[in-house]
Amino acid sequence: MERKRGYDKKRAGKGETPKPKVDPGDVIAKVAGFAGPLCESEGLELVYVEFQREVAGWVLRVYVDKTGGVSLEDCSHVSRQLGDLLDVGIENVWPYNLEVSSPGENRPLGKLSDFEKFQGRMATIKLNTAIEGQKKFKGILQGVMDETIQLLMGDKTVTLPYKDIVKARLA
Question: CB-based contacts of 72: which residues, under 8 Å, 6+ apart?
Fold first, then answer.
């Protein structure tokens, strides 16, 4: 479900309006603060939130899930409610498209518990700092140990610090 939202110079008034300063991390944290309780009240799990610049502009993507799968109606319902909350609760954000969807086959992994839950599955993980000259890893999730992700790559297990993960998905 997609919906155009955010800062609108026309609504801001006449004259020169300063462009908003956007920190995607702050936006994600605020959105998760609204979306988490909303999803919980609807019997859904908030899987992941991303806010990024794409060719067509800023996209705020919210992934939700539930046992048995998410329907289009679930996504539409969350999109309407979350959109209204964000219109009131988030200011000075670039115009963005709000997308609410199921995580799908290449499910994003955001919570530490996700890496445990999907143990035995293939995943790709990108870090913000290199380990032995490498930032991108692909292998089989072996679980979590002391805030690190264990990833089997071929015949070698690599330990990746959870705090350094920029992006992770099932492959």
Answer: 1
Domain count of the fold of the chain: 2
Sequence-distant (6+) residues with CB within 8 A of 102 are: 63, 64, 65, 69, 70, 75
In sign, the C-alpha dihedral spanning 49, 85, 91, 98 is: positive
106 found inside a domain: no
pLDDT at 138: 97
The domain that holds 20 is classified in CATH as: 3.30.300.70
Taking the C-alpha atoms of residue 118 and residue 105, their distance in angstroms, rounded to an integer, is: 12
Quick one: 85 and 22 in the same domain? Answer: yes
Same domain? 23 vs 60: yes
* Per-residue pLDDT tens over the stretch 105-153: 899 999 999 999 999 999 999 999 999 899 999 999 999 999 999 999 9
Decide if pLDDT at 6 tops 70.
no
